[in-house]
Amino acid sequence: MPSNILKKKHQVFQFFKYISRSRSAHSVHSPFAYDFYTNILKNKISGQDRKLIQRIRSKGLKNRNIIEHTDMGAGSGGKTYTRKYKRVSRIVKNTAISHKFGEVLYNLVRHYRPQNILEFGTAAGISTLYLALARTEDSQLVTMEGCAETATVARSNFKKAHVKNDIQLLTGNFASVLPVAMEQMPRIDLVYIDGNHTKEPMLEYFNMLLPHVHNDTIFVLDDIHWSGEMTKAWDIIRNNEQVTLSIDLFRMGIIFLKKELSSQHLILRY
Ligand SMILES: C[S@@+](CC[C@H](N)C(=O)[O-])C[C@H]1O[C@@H](n2cnc3c(N)ncnc32)[C@H](O)[C@@H]1O
Fold first, then answer.
1. Does residue 89's CB lie within 6 angstroms of at least one atom of ligand 1?
2. Residue 211 lies in a domain
3. Is 174 in the pocket of ligand 1 (CB under 6 A)?
4. Measured in angstroms, how far is the CA atom of residue 184 from the centroid of ligand 1?
5. Looking at the domain assignment, is residue 90 inside a domain?
6. Which is more confident, 92 or 74?
7. CA pair distance 105, 44, nearest whole angstrom
8. In the chain, how many domains are there?
9. 252-256 β-sheet, strand order
């Protein structure tokens, strides 16, 4: 069976599993998880920031310029990379985080105030904007992107949002730029992984990050049920001995390492 049909079947199966197992706020008893529910899942983004991101997203969706897109992730079909000409509008449509989940990123940064934020997979920079607009002034935001031409689109979006100087964009394969990022950021407070959706690289990045984490580090993993491989990677990561709380929102998985929390895996309706 072609791999995209297998992936679709997996997503549908996992979605029904999520619907049948996910719980609402009423069944969340831990004070930390309840605080998460109210401040991260229920809170709305400020009107001004929402409008700014919406404006940049809709301009991107109308941008018919063609760029040479280099794919170093799951779309490269096992090769080091593949190249294809793509319209910017298509890149934005197919890769940018939805507003609903962008709001989760924004609220995580607003509420927990991480000082060092690291993103895997900038694409056109839409998710980076949610992180950048929510961050505190003294925090550091590093984002990594393998495709140089897509990174140029992201830089132009950062300029439009007046956050270009607040973001450091590293271009190159994650495996080679991650050590550069970690040199600048020996301690990581929030990491968002949204690129190279395959099991082994995902586990490799997680393991490379572990020496740089601490009790309050938050991991956000995108597309955790995008494929069988991604669900396996998510299951391995959430069962890591350092993880105390994992939250499955179907599209996104969030992990906390706080030792003071009793071990819990929550599947929350969102
Ligand atoms: C899903 S998109 C990111 C979308 C972005 N976070 C957003 O929501 O606006 C994933 C990005 O990761 C990049 N990527 C995938 N694998 C990579 C790798 N091994 N090294 C560097 N970049 C990679 C792709 O080029 C792509 O732009």
1. no
2. yes
3. yes
4. 21
5. no
6. 92
7. 11
8. 1
9. 167-171, 140-145, 116-120, 190-193, 218-222, 252-256, 245-248, 264-267
Q: Ligand 1 centroid vs 235 CA: distance in angstroms?
A: 22
Q: Write the CA distances from 206 to 1, 187, 215, 228, 241, integer angstroms.
A: 30, 14, 15, 18, 13
Would 78 be classed as within a structural domain?
no
Report pTM.
0.95
Contact in structure between 84 and 69 (CB atoms under 8 Å): yes
Q: Establish whether residue 102 lines the binding site of ligand 1, counting it when its CB lies within 6 angstroms of any ligand atom.
A: no
What does 100-134 look like in DSSP terms, one character per residue? Answer: HHHHHHHHHHHHH--SEEEEE--TTSHHHHHHHHH
Asked if the model's pLDDT at residue 80 lies above 90, the reply is no
* Distance from the alpha carbon of residue 38 to the mean position of ligand 1, in angstroms: 30
pLDDT score of 242 = 97
In a domain? residue 65: no
Provide the CATH number for the domain around residue 163: 3.40.50.150
Closest residue to atom 21 of ligand 1, CA basis: 146
In a mutational test of the pocket of ligand 1, which residue from 59, 71, 198 has the highest number of ligand atoms less than 8 Å from its CB? 71
122 phi and psi angles, rounded to 5 deg? -85, -40
Atom of ligand 1 nearest to the CA of 94: 1
Give 99-120 pLDDT, tens digit per residue. 999 999 999 999 999 999 999 9
Q: Residue 132's domain spans which residues?
A: 3-60+96-267
Ligand 1 mean position to 96 CA, how many Å? 10
CB 156 within 8 A of CB 147: no
Residue partners of 114: CB distance under 8 A and separation at least 6: 108, 135, 139, 189, 190, 218
